[in-house]
Amino acid sequence: MAEEIAGLGDPIRTLELMWGRAPAPKRGPKSRLSVAELVAAAVAIADAEGIGAVSTRRVAEAVGISPMSFYTHIPDKAVLLDLMLDAVATGQAGEPTTPDFHPANWRANVTLVARSFRSFYLAHPWALQIGTHRPVLGPNTIRAYDNFLSVFDGLGLSEVEMDLCVILVANYVHGAVRDVVRAKMVKAQTGMSDDEWWYTIEPFLQTMDFSPYPVASRVGAVVGELYGLGDHDLAFDFGLERILDGLERLIEGKAATPPGAATVDGKPPSA
Amino acid sequence: MAEEIAGLGDPIRTLELMWGRAPAPKRGPKSRLSVAELVAAAVAIADAEGIGAVSTRRVAEAVGISPMSFYTHIPDKAVLLDLMLDAVATGQAGEPTTPDFHPANWRANVTLVARSFRSFYLAHPWALQIGTHRPVLGPNTIRAYDNFLSVFDGLGLSEVEMDLCVILVANYVHGAVRDVVRAKMVKAQTGMSDDEWWYTIEPFLQTMDFSPYPVASRVGAVVGELYGLGDHDLAFDFGLERILDGLERLIEGKAATPPGAATVDGKPPSA
DNA sequence: CCCAATCCTGTACACTGTAAAGAGTTATTT
DNA sequence: AAATAACTCTTTACAGTGTACAGGATTGGG
């Protein structure tokens, strides 16, 4: 398995493809396929078999062209990955652009987008494995960003603070969902669940001396007994709640402070 | 780049290698190399050229054995990746196991471990690209976990809560450092900085209609003008500060509540 | 008509992880 | 001492990857 770094191709060409702005060819045969068909086929493969199964040959075969014809439509695999990411980004299909936000309850709104972001990763786990080299500035991605930002709008935060809040929550969700996705993928590939794995290694762990790690062994014992390898849903909600508390202090500080006194990092001027 | 999923090999064998507990071979020629030498060579390659440059052949060549001899020492590449992760985990070498924690200032302590965790990823960016299938239960990794946990010890938190706090902060750091690392890697591979990339695509962006994304375009304009693609250090500190505020509410609540009253999962601690 | 642009294809190369089989070395058993 | 089992290391081989290159087929503009 390799690294899957996307976006090393010509940035302009990538953007043109993503926005459907590629200049229409004047001469030559009409192509039998659209870029969208290739991307859809690639996404289908990734959803079904993981990103590792997505190769240029596989995608070409899926749409019924020869391996090298792929490169007629998409410059290289990195661009394909960018296109895939934007294709599945929340905001298209049946999903409403702006779901039912509570006007006066920003905590509920943030929880909503965080959960929806989490659901996105659970639906397309391979998205976690793609390391985009540059931000994917496609229409769907930007719509998702817009949607995410809007839950922090009108709360007295500066634009920079709004951006930082989105980054904070997005980073947290990304990190939190990684473990769940990993466990699922490994289970699918090996047939061994986290629990089975744990029981397999447990006898070995018994033979070892954990006294150099006092806190870890104490906590690990309690946590392991209660949840095995950990309850991912519980961990997600716990972390999100802490982040919401942290944001609340920032936002309440803003409400109590006249606009203009705002500082970039959002520290409430503790009088 | 591909997925680099680690840990699909025999779990016990992996643990034995990681803890140096492999039963010493009784017959046969002495091997000229130790597993540690192979792992060190792999880490050196990854540090210098990225995880993509780490192949079993490259590692074998680096230590002066034939390609297939690699498999005499390490079952497969997935195990190598696990060994690499534990080899670089914080806690070994000259680093003190427990740096100078302030006894009464947990915020400073959390900030310290968070920054140190961040430094780790910046020193070994390839660690971000490895998706471990199972937790890496090596000595260095556990020591790092122990160290991380200890900053939440003695604050009135339950064991489960301590674990969840570590997960929260670790997830956040992981997510936050991703962008910095990505930018660095792309710059190294393409010679194009984020700023140069931005200037390249800017003319294209000018031709587009962003009115469907009102909040994003407003925020993007301000943020882009101030920081280009974003100030990663600023974003890191901002997010960490919010998280610390959130943790503070939890911890202060604990201090005001007699132990045994309530825990996050509702289960009372053994009291 | 001619030619340039474009789509599609087959061949080829260097690279990957690793299966399989064997050669050489060593310690234990007979 | 001889046989054997265990071990290290090697060569060969295979199926897969991304994609460079060269050419054939088709289309529209001059």
For the biggest sheet of chain A, the summary is: 2 strands, parallel
Beta-strand percentage range of chain A: under 5%
What is the spatial order of strands in the main beta sheet of chain A? 1-2
According to DSSP, the number of beta strands of chain A is 2
The greatest interface between two protein chains, and residues involved on each side, is:
A-B, 92 and 93 residues
Q: Kindly report how far apart the N and C termini of chain A lie.
A: 55 Å
Report the CATH architecture of the domain at 152-256 in chain A. Orthogonal Bundle
CATH topology annotation of the domain at 152-256 in chain A: Tetracycline Repressor, domain 2
What is the chain-wise order of helices and strands of chain A?
A: EHHHHHHEHHHHH
What is the subunit arrangement here?
A: homodimer
In angstroms, what is the radius of gyration of chain A?
A: 23 Å
> Structural class, judged by helices and strands of chain A?
mainly alpha
CATH uppermost class of the domain at 152-256 in chain A = Mainly Alpha
Approximately how much helix is present in the residues of chain A?
55-70%
Provide mean pLDDT of chain A, rounded: 85
Shape of chain A: flat
Poorly predicted regions of chain A: 1-8, 266-271
State the helix count of chain A.
11
What is the CATH H-level superfamily of the domain at 152-256 in chain A?
Tetracycline Repressor, domain 2
